[in-house]
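Board notes (copied after class):
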Amino acid sequence: MFFWSKERRRARVRERPFPETWAEILRRRVPYYTRLPEAQQAELRGHVQVFLAEKHFEGCGGFALNDDVRVTIAGHACILLLNRPAHYYPKLTSILVYEDQFWVNAHVEDDDGLVEEVDDWHAGESWQTGAVILAWKEVLDCGAVEGEAAYNVVLHEFAHQLDDDDGVIDGVPSLDRENLFDRWADVFERSFEKHLRDVRRRRDTPIDDYGAEDPAEFFAVATETFFEMPAALRKRHPELYELLRGYYRQDPAKYA
């Protein structure tokens, strides 16, 4: 009963008139939106309305939030929900936004079990405790190409949220299509190994080198590349492109 009640409420939210000021923000800040057919643009607008109704946004370090910030982030995040059952990142409750990169102090365990304290500036983080943290200045660079690799911090962090649907962030999101299970482990693992070789040999690749950290980061940066540089990904990693096309039920190369 609760499930159907939530779905009816979400359907009503999706049917609300979409403010023209919000549509202008999507056109200006979310390049992928402008390339979509009208039916998918309408679907994205509906998802944005639900996302904004259900998720809490908070400015950090004195950063003031406004519709530009909220709609831009929601627009990028909801790209990953198109054409699929939209669960709206069920574990996510809050999006925390800094004006610029934020300082993180963390304890990292290496393969030998040794724990090291690491300090670094971050553009974004995805937490399993229900939060995504983003730097607004980095969000404004979404859609840009850094060197030869794609860059979209919102897609990156929300890909981690999808990866966590099954409770483990390991580069394998919940796969709701049975024919993907057999192929995912094989294609994803071989693509990851190819990326490791590319990085070690300093070959140019559309997938950011950070994807060599581990399979979870590879899934996140591959998602960035799939939407931001689809033709390059399809050329360099054709099987990976097809795998992601099956998972996301989108074919971004058609709109490039």
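Comment from the instructor: DSSP finds eleven helices and eight strands in the chain. The mean pLDDT is 90.
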